[in-house]
Amino acid sequence: MNPVVSVCDLVKTYPSGNALDGVSFDLEPGAIYGFLGRNGAGESTTMAILTSQLFATSGTVRVFGEDPYENPRVLGRMCFVRENQKYPESMTAAQALRAASLFYPGWDHDFAERLVADFRLPLKTKVKKLSRGQLSAVGVIIGLCSRAEITFFDEPYLGLDAVARQIFYDRLIADYAEHPRTILMSSHLIDEIASLIERVLVIDAGRIIMDETVEEATSAVTRASGPTAALDRLARGPRVLERRTMGSAGALVVHGIPNESESDLAAQSGVRLEPVGLQESIVHRTAAAAAATGPELTPSSMEGALS
Q: Is 206 helix (H, G, I), strand (E, B) or coil?
């Protein structure tokens, strides 16, 4: 099956430096991807180039096998919704949704009405008077109801409160089950979207450092906790990502899955082994990648950047 999006050696250069530095990845049809990274890592820039809103400095982009730039055959099959999405301020919320519906032949009016009710969106209120959460609701309604073959969500749901975000996640996964398409969503709320996404792309300093299934990403990092002396025997080598000690006990985070002999040693020594969550895996591996290529970053500082 051919990818619907193919990116090869994508570079975007500004006077201050490279926003993208050789980005390459494919998106397959009928899958939900998480596109994750620190603030300014390159997610928004990549999405803007894929949707022909920015020029790349070099590299190639193919969407449905074609160059998307000024290509109505391609652009009409994609929907891009971002956090700071702009709408004409004179429009009401209803007019913004109606205008969006004209761009997408697969627009589902009934679904839009249900989502308006779910998010309690005041349709008669002008866009300029909508709250941040209400503007976010407009964006996610457009993204879901467009039924575009490829939908890019660049954190338009950040303005939603926890209840509204859960409504979005529930409606997204239910609608995707009935109408499969390719969805690429960026978010700093990694653990919230972990159950939605099938594959994760992690970008750092303009480079892709992870391109894995969620299962691969979470199993790639293991936490060991138990007696300090026993942890010492497991802590040899470059696989150690983090170590914390509190008296005679401690915790160790390592890259990879312990082999059989290490697992046996852990069991005999009273050490508990467990996989970490998606966010913790990404935090540790991003910190390790940054330490290998630039100034050292601690996992605690990465946690703040990704949350």
A: coil
Instruction: Specify whether 146 is located in the same domain as 241.
Output: no
Global pTM value: 0.86
What's the pLDDT score for residue 11?
Answer: 97
Task: DSSP for 232-293, please give it.
Answer: HHH--STTEEEEEEETTEEEEEEES---HHHHHHHHHTT-EEEEPPHHHHHHHHHHHHHHHH
Q: What DSSP string describes 124-176? A: TSBGGGS-HHHHHHHHHHHHHHT--SEEEEESTTTTS-HHHHHHHHHHHHHHH
Please give the residue range of the domain that contains residue 261: 217-291
3-state secondary structure of 50: helix
Nearest-angstrom CA–CA distance, 93 and 75: 24
For residue range 136-173, what is the model confidence (pLDDT) as tens digits? 999 999 999 999 999 999 998 888 999 999 999 999 99
Same domain, 137 and 221: no
Instruction: Please tell me the distance from the alpha carbon of residue 195 to that of residue 278, in angstroms, as a whole number.
Output: 10
- Which structure tokens are listed for 28? 């397959």
Whether the CB-CB separation of 252 and 225 falls below 8 Å is answered with yes
Total Cβ atoms within 10 A of residue 32:
21
In terms of domains, do 14 and 143 share one? Answer: yes
Tokens of 75: 């652009």
Token code pair at residue 25 = 């990845």
